[in-house]
Specification:
- By secondary structure, the chain is mainly alpha-helical.
- The longest helix is centred in the C-terminal third of the chain and has 30 residues.
- Helix content is about 55%, strand content about 5%.
- Helix 2 links the parallel strand 1 and strand 2.
- The strands form two sheets. A three-stranded parallel beta sheet has the order 1-2-3. It has a two-stranded parallel sheet with strand order 4-5.
- Bound molecules: tryptophan (TRP).
- Tryptophan binds next to strand 1, helix 8 and strand 4.
- The site of tryptophan has 13 residues, from strand 1, helix 8 and strand 4.
Length: about 350
């Protein structure tokens, strides 16, 4: 074997591991799609990583929900991953709750995570302010379960939005602490924050991020919106009293629309400005609605197909869970051994 092909062999073995989970809470928005999902698909299709993608359904239990709604959202999340291009032949796709090692390592990591560091988590502070009547222990220890999600697979990269960076950092701190006590057990993960220029903002209040938990349906575009809904929402999008389609300070609404149009068409923002020179906001909003509707349509149709075929979704997630569980158990056995538990004999 030549040196080069030997190197390639080594490289193949050492493919980096990329892992990301998404919470099953409401339809994925255009912001999630352009900011996160398209990226996940790129990472998957690059062939440079072994990828794991899952629905964080256990994390969803930290806030109150209707059981039937949650179940539907789990299926819908899975359907959305597939519809957006996550390919179960290329990536391991599963439900967190189907791989029991997550809850098990989560408990162990609870015992290596400090009250003080959990108290400092921004998301915990935000969520407990919003759910003052349900500040449960799960909400508090959420980051330790997320650390388990990541560390079980000896993950190298965690592609997440800025809001989850702190959680990846605490996972790294927990791993470091554990490794410090017991010797190298976990790989240290790194957050992989996408530099995507397009931060998609609310259509109703363009100073706020487009968020799937927004109660104003006109503020957000979701991957399950119909063509008509999309066009209507863009027509109603908040702009300013000006009329030129140009980026500028104090023009948050127009800036957001230009960013969206640019992200969807792949044109630079300057090209977009040139394309709409001499045209007003009305024309531009309609054009935005149309390009977004064209992009969402095939995704929505695929989601609907998958939702009408839950047996298929069950099958995909069962295969994914089985594959994930093999890797997860390896790490869990290692952890059992290190902390002094008895490793169960596997037949
Ligand atoms: N906390 C993440 C979110 O709300 C979801 C999540 C759970 C996650 N486990 C993870 C993300 C592991 C990345 C890796 O978006």
């Amino acid at each position: 074997m030549s040196e080069l092909s030997q190197n390639n062999e080594v490289k193949k073995e050492k493919k980096k591991i990329s892992l990301s989970f998404i919470q099953p809470s409401g339809s994925i928005t255009l912001g999630n799609y352009l900011g996160a999902l398209t990226n996940w698909v790129t990472i998957q299709n690059s062939g440079d990583f072994n990828c794991l993608y899952a629905m964080a359904d256990l994390h969803a239990l930290t806030v109150r929900h209707e059981p039937a709604d949650l179940r539907k959202q789990i299926y819908q999340g899975l359907a959305t991953l597939l519809a957006c291009g996550i390919d179960p032949e290329k990536s391991i796709v599963f439900l967190q709750s189907h791989v029991h090692q997550h809850a098990e390592l989560g408990w162990i990591l609870d015992c290596y995570t400090m009250f003080g560091e959990l108290s400092r988590m921004t998301q915990f502070k935000d969520k407990s302010a919003k759910n003052a009547d349900n500040i449960n222990a799960g909400l508090f220890t959420y980051p330790a379960l997320m650390a388990a999600d990541i560390l079980l697979y000896q993950t190298d990269f965690v592609p997440v939005g800025q809001d989850q960076k702190q959680h990846v950092e605490i996972a790294r701190d927990i791993a470091n602490r554990f490794n410090g006590i017991y010797g190298k057990t976990f790989n240290l993960p790194e957050p992989y924050i996408t530099k995507s220029g397009a931060r998609i903002m609310s259509l109703a209040d363009p100073t706020k991020k487009m968020s799937k938990s927004d109660s104003n349906v006109n503020a957000i575009i979701t991957v399950t919106d119909t063509d008509n809904e999309i066009i209507k929402k863009f027509k109603r999008a908040v702009t300013d009293s000006g009329s030129e389609v140009r980026m500028g300070e104090g023009k948050d609404g127009v800036n957001n629309l230009i960013n969206i149009y640019s992200a969807v068409t792949g044109k630079s923002t300057e090209e977009v400005e040139r394309e709409f020179e001499g045209k007003g906001y009305g024309d531009f909003k309609l054009a935005c609605g149309e390009v977004v509707a064209d992009r969402i349509r095939p995704i929505r149709e695929k989601i609907n197909d998958y939702m009408n075929n839950r047996d298929y979704l069950d099958q995909i997630s069962a295969v994914g869970a089985e594959r994930a569980s093999i890797f997860a158990q390896r790490t869990l056995d290692k952890v059992y051994k290190k902390v002094g538990l008895v490793v169960k004999k596997h037949n």
